[in-house]
Structure formats: structure tokens, C-alpha cells
Amino acid sequence: STNAPDTLYVTVNVRCTLESSENVLIDLYIDFVAADGAITQVNDQVMLST
To answer: pLDDT of the chain along its 50 residues, tens only?
Structure first.
């Protein structure tokens, strides 16, 4: 066996939606792919107001 470090791939997709002149809705989609092929998916939604 080798002591090679594990590799973690992270994919981030961001979608911004301008709901009005003051609010921005941000959708985050994050995929973590571990060295063993396991995929962890995280998503969140953030509202930004000016």
C-alpha cells in the first residue's frame, strides 16, 4: 500500500436570482467526491438583501 493522500474533488454550482431591486437569491449546490468514490451532496439557499 502507498501513503498517497486521499483526493477530494469539490464541485460548486452557484445560481443567483435577482428577485427584486433589493433581494438576491443564491442557490448553492456542492458535491464532494471522496477518493473512494463516495459522493456527498449539499445544497443551501441564501437570501441577500441590500
So the answer is: 565 556 778 889 999 998 888 899 999 999 988 888 889 999 999 999 87
Exposed/middle/buried for residue 21 (C-beta within 10 Å: 0-12, 13-18, 19+):
exposed
Distance separating alpha carbons of residues 43 and 32, to the nearest angstrom:
11
- As a whole number of angstroms, the distance between CA 1 and CA 14 comes to 38
- DSSP assignment of 1-50: ---PPP--EEEEEEEEEE-SSSEEEEEEEEEEE-TTS-EEEEEEEEEEE-
